[in-house]
Design brief:
Strand content: 5-15%
Distance between the termini: 65 Å
Number of helices: 6
Number of strands: 5
Structural class: alpha+beta
Order of helices and strands: HHHHHHEEEEE
Length: about 190
């Protein structure tokens, strides 16, 4: 079945490319794009959105034409057996959702660990000299060949969340705090 899903997803990608190339007919292709999105496994939760809503994997159009083992088994069931099987699937949907929640939490923890491995803390102390980045939307910006940093400034106060209160070397404080991402240490 996974091979059929992968083939369907490749077809969906082709349809999406056609939607991008031919902007007029996108509304005709949109249901196919939704089908592809809803039947693709999300890395963060380890399941498809369709499975989480309906409790079973979607029957894709390819499985209707060339029946998969799951379709053949359901076709051979009597109506009472099919209803019983469907009720069992629906009672297990909460368990599937809990498994997905656990998977999502583990995924989140992995992402946090990977983030903390690569990011190093930027700690500034009161009295330390720093340079402030000049952003293109600021009044001080003079073009692409001008310096990107200005200063030095002195750190007057460190606020929560990495914000800093800076002051000029003469002692006049800036009216607004600045994010610590927009400053770097000044080395004389």
């Amino acid at each position: 079945m996974n091979g059929a899903v992968e083939a369907a997803n490749k077809n969906i990608k082709k349809i999406l490319r056609k939607m991008i190339d031919n902007r007029r007919g996108w509304h005709e292709m949109f249901p196919y794009a939704l089908l592809g999105y809803r039947t693709t496994v999300r890395t963060s939760v380890g399941a498809t959105p369709y499975l989480l809503v309906y409790g079973t994997e979607a029957v894709i159009p390819a499985e209707v034409e060339v029946p998969s083992l799951r379709i053949i088994q359901e076709a051979e069931l009597s109506d009472a057996d099919w209803v019983r099987k469907r009720i069992d699937q629906l009672t297990l949907i909460d368990e599937k959702r809990m498994v997905v929640v656990c998977h999502g939490q583990l995924y989140r923890q992995r992402m946090i660990r990977a983030f903390h491995k690569k990011v190093r803390a930027r700690i500034f102390e009161v009295g330390q000299l720093v340079l402030k980045r000049i952003s293109p939307h600021q009044d001080e910006y003079k073009g692409k060949f001008a310096p990107n940093w200005q200063g030095p400034y002195m750190v007057r106060k460190e606020l929560s969340g990495g914000a800093l209160i800076l002051s000029e070397m003469e002692g006049t404080e800036w009216p607004k705090p600045i994010n610590s991402d927009a400053v770097k240490r000044y080395c004389a």
